[in-house]
């Protein structure tokens, strides 16, 4: 199978990621910080090392400002539900994933209000103006995706963050499609919260992610429970990471995420990105030449996009096109990609789109195979 569904999760995973998960389960993944025995101590040390690696990669001041989570969705929920209170207003973009839209929809039932700023693919300055104009006296947070998982369009997060900082408003970023591909770090950007999955551009395992915080903000908790610390207290500890990491952490997954980050830094994030943009451009150029294919964005470039492409074939429903491609050995994602609002923006609300996204492991021959298969289904 030619796998081009890397925007959903990257596949395959690097060898080191697979190895460390196997070793963690077979050799030493005891419960970290939950007992004085040797294996628990080793697990605690390994967990701390993973925190250090993620802190360095995302420019956190201290490892304790990295919270490991079961995925980007959880990280986003922790930020939105941890910070927003009745009466608060939040600004998001009109390209957000349901990981942002649905928690906010729920919070709106408790008196939070939301404004969606328009993202303009061709005009980042206009996007910035839309964000700036959406801010009100009660705006407590600006939160947006770094790049759309449907269109690949990149938001000017540095500029939005600087604007927020000048107005004293915290800014959070959903880095689901950008972590490991675009520069995303607290020490280079005025962003306050970065939410990432471990299993996409960081090449870790499914069910992992992180929230990286600029400082120890007074977060309300969404989940309370055992932390291995301050056990005599009924209240959730105030200190991080314990405040937001209740229960036994997914140590094999966290170590896989560490190995994935090391894979990215070892290869060079820029080198991986260059490779992926070249393949995405090759796919775009090829798709553009196939009669009946509709493309919805400009040719992906590092300045404007992450390397993924939405398209449709003739009058086919996107799911049908996806199924026909699967029958021809090509794995892509079709439908709404959990981001219906983005489909409304590009005019595909009635049918969704097919999405292709290469990874560090993709080859030009994968794109050739995709184009061959699209040519076949566009004729039938
Ligand atoms: N935000 C965006 C933009 C995404 O593409 C995704 C994954 N589809 C998520 C959030 C959620 O990530 P996870 O599956 O790791 O919770």
The gist of it:
With 380 residues, this protein is an alpha/beta fold. Helix content is 39%, strand content 14%. α6 (157-166) links the parallel β5 and β6.
How would you characterize this protein structure?
There is one protein chain. With 380 residues, this protein is an alpha/beta fold. It folds into two domains: 252 residues, Type I PLP-dependent aspartate aminotransferase-like (Major domain) (Aspartate Aminotransferase, domain 2, 3-Layer(aba) Sandwich); 112 residues, Aspartate Aminotransferase, domain 1, CATH 3.90.1150.10. It has a seven-stranded mixed β-sheet, with helices on both faces. Strands 9-10-13-12 form a four-stranded antiparallel β-sheet, covered by helices on one side. The radius of gyration is 21 Å and the shape is globular. The relative contact order is 0.16. Bound molecules: 4'-deoxy-4'-aminopyridoxal-5'-phosphate. 4'-deoxy-4'-aminopyridoxal-5'-phosphate binds next to α3.
Regarding quaternary structure, how should these chains be classified? single chain
The CA-CA distance between the termini, in Å, is 21 Å
Mean pLDDT: 96
CATH class of the largest domain: Alpha Beta
**CATH architecture label name of the largest domain:** 3-Layer(aba) Sandwich
Number of strands: 13
- Count the DSSP helices: 11
Bound molecules: 4'-deoxy-4'-aminopyridoxal-5'-phosphate
Q: What is the domain total for the residues?
A: 2
Order of helices and strands: EHHEHEHEHEHEEEHHEEHEEHEH
Please state the CA-atom Rg, rounded to the nearest Å.
21 Å
Stated plainly, the CATH topology of the largest domain is called Aspartate Aminotransferase, domain 2
Strand fraction equals 5-15%
The CATH homologous superfamily of the largest domain corresponds to Type I PLP-dependent aspartate aminotransferase-like (Major domain)
């Amino acid at each position: 199978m030619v796998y081009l569904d890397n925007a959903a999760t990257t596949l395959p995973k690097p060898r080191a990621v697979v190895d460390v998960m196997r070793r963690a389960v077979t050799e030493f993944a005891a419960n970290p910080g939950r007992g004085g025995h040797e294996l628990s101590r080793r697990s605690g040390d390994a967990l701390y090392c993973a925190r250090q690696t993620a802190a360095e990669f995302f420019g956190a001041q201290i490892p304790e400002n990295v919270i490991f989570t079961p995925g980007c969705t959880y990280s986003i929920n922790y930020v939105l539900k941890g910070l927003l209170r009745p009466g608060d207003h939040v600004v998001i973009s009109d390209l957000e994933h349901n990981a942002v839209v649905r928690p906010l929809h729920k919070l709106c039932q408790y008196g939070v209000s939301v404004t969606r700023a328009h993202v303009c693919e061709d005009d980042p300055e206009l996007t910035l103006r839309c964000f700036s104009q959406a801010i009100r006296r009660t705006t407590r947070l600006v939160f947006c995706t770094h790049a759309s998982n449907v269109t690949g369009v990149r938001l000017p997060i540095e500029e939005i963050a600087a604007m927020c900082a000048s107005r004293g408003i915290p800014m959070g970023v959903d880095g689901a499609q950008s972590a490991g591909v675009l520069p995303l770090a607290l020490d280079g950007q005025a962003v306050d919260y970065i939410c990432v999955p471990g299993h996409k551009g960081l090449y870790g395992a499914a069910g992992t992610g992180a929230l990286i915080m600029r400082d120890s903000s007074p977060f309300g908790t969404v989940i309370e429970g055992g932390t291995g610390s301050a056990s005599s207290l009924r209240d959730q500890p105030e200190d991080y990471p314990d405040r937001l990491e209740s229960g036994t952490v997914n140590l094999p997954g966290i170590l896989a995420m560490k190995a994935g980050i090391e894979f990215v830094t070892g290869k060079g994030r820029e080198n991986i990105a260059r490779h992926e943009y070249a393949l995405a451009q090759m796919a775009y150029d090829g798709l553009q030449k196939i009669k009946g294919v509709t493309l919805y964005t400009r040719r992906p470039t590092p300045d404007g996009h992450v390397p993924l492409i939405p398209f449709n074939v003739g009058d086919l429903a996107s799911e049908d096109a996806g199924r026909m491609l699967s029958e021809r050995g090509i794995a892509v994602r079709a439908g709404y990609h959990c981001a219906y609002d983005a489909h409304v923006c590009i005019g595909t609300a009635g049918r969704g789109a097919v999405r292709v996204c290469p990874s560090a492991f993709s080859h030009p021959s994968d794109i050739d195979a995709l184009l061959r298969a699209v040519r076949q289904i566009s004729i039938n």
